[in-house]
Amino acid sequence: MSTSALCDIPVTIERGQREVFCGLTGIVWLHRKMQDAFFLVVGSRTCAHLLQSAAGVMIFSEPRFATAIMQEKDLAGLADANEELDRIVHRLLERRPDIKTLFLVGSCPSEVIKLDLGKAAERLTTSHKGRVRVLNYSGSGIETTFTEGEDTCLDAMVRAAPFTEEKQLLVVGTLPDVVEDQFVRLFKESGVSDAAGNVAFFPPRKAEQIPAIGPNTQFILAQPFLNITRRTLIGMGANHIPSQFPFGINGSLAWMHAIAVAFGVPANQIDEACAAPIARATKAISHYQEALQNKKIWFMPDSQLEIPLARFLQQECNVELQEIGVPYLDRQTMTMELAVLPPDTTIVEGQDVDAQLDRVRDNKPDLVVCGLGLANPLEAENIVTKWSIELVFTPIHGFDQAGDLAELFARPIQRKQKLRV
Question: Residue 5 has what pLDDT?
Fold first, then answer.
């Protein structure tokens, strides 16, 4: 599809106060995916409290993340933060010899005092050479939205990737292991694995096993918020496969067909391999269509999942899209999703939270998908909400999760109906 076709849907840009988590939240799912990695946040006690509460684990369970807390003397420049960081990393590696990759994660405090974590990562990699690889990325709240934490993390990993000229398919974006295994089976049954030569998922289950990248690497995004990573991969010579994202039946099938076209796999092989999963997904979604049909849905900007999820709800659950708010719109990443939305769809990029809340009250949607900070106040006004962050933590990709995805939206609506007196 040509870029000019994207202008068919006008996008309103708003600027003002916004409500969003910071990129440190991404550590919750990234540390579960990469079992040999450790995430060390260089930040404040607030950063530590956020991580502990978001991950739902206690510190004494020794999770694979921690916070190097910056004290007042660090912020005031009265102490050498680099010396203190080196000391903390040395103690950490002595205590946790299983760590193979260490991520230094920047936060608002570390960025405000201009602490150069890139140089710190290089210095620590040299001093612990052969023992651990140290990478760094930003997870600060200065970014647009919390999912950018994964984007900047994967970007850092891509830049450390080895070079290859081998033909391969690279699936980019953190997927739960169960979803990854399902896609592997579909690739084998459809002939994609044979045609691609090699199939790799990024990030890998072990951070030290970063896949090699080169001019014969074809990559497809599994997550819609990896704009920086996409541009870096293209800059390294890899070829992007544009596609809808694998949410619901239509998105997952379009995603598989896009891969098939890139590697010359006949379309009928994809259809045959996907027939049984599609049948299961159709039956699973049907349980929630009555609850969702003709319901008015409103997306507040939060995760950058909004556009593909809105497409799923509109096409497969027959909902009415009142407004799709997105924190940031990268038209190159969203090309194929924008192409299948109704031309009268209202899309708002950015956020002026007060203005958007006024529109919500005026339009009275049946469900508002929003962040935690807005959910409780809206519920107090008798407006049904869905926490958008739950859509990031829950397996929702692929055919076999399509029913679960529909249920996530139907559940709050059904709850209100049951509570009505």
Answer: 47
With a CB cutoff of 8 Å and minimum separation 6, the contacts of 90 are none
CA angle 385–386–392, rounded 5-degree value: 160
Task: Kindly report whether the peptide bond that precedes residue 246 is cis, defined as omega within 30 degrees of 0.
Answer: no
Structure tokens that stand for 329 in this block: 């719109």
Other Cβ atoms within 10 Å of 91 Cβ, number: 10
Q: Is 292 exposed, middle or buried (0-12, 13-18, 19+ CB in 10 A)?
A: buried
Per-residue confidence (pLDDT) for residue 421, from 0 to 100: 54
Residues comprising the chain, all counted: 421
For residue 319, is pLDDT > 90?
A: yes
Q: What is the pTM of this model?
A: 0.93
Pick from 408, 374, 376: nearest CA to 393: 408
Coil, helix or strand at residue 134: strand
What is the token pair recorded at 192?
């994609």
Mean of pLDDT over the chain? 91
345 Cβ neighbours under 8 A, 6+ residues apart: 9, 310, 321, 324
Q: What is the Cα–Cα distance from 174 to 184, expressed in whole angstroms?
A: 14
Strand order across the beta sheet in which 37-43 lies: 65-69, 37-43, 101-106, 133-138
Q: Which amino acid is at 223?
A: Q
Can you read off the two tokens belonging to residue 253? 């099938």
How high is the pLDDT of residue 394? 92
Helix (H, G, I), strand (E, B) or coil at 399: helix
Dihedral sign of CA atoms 359, 365, 369, 372 in order:
positive
Dump pLDDT digits (tens) for 72-109: 655 555 457 888 899 999 999 999 998 999 999 999 88
- Pairing mode, strands 199-202 and 385-387: unpaired
Cα 201 to chain centroid, rounded: 14
Alpha carbon distance 138, 157 (integer Å)? 13
At residue 267 the predicted structure's pLDDT band, cuts being 50, 70 and 90, is very high
Is residue 222 a contact partner of residue 175, using CB atoms and an 8 Å limit?
A: yes
Distance (Å, rounded) from C-alpha 211 to C-alpha 199?
10
The CA distance from 94 to 285, in Å, is 50
Contacts of 16 (CB under 8 A, 6+ apart): 350, 351, 352, 353, 354, 355
Rounded to a whole number, what is the largest CA-CA distance in the chain?
67
Per-residue burial over 142-166, b = 16 or more CB atoms within 10 Å of its CB, e = otherwise:
ebbbbbbbbbbbbbbbbeebeeeee
Q: What is the phi/psi pair of residue 47, to 5°?
A: -60, -45
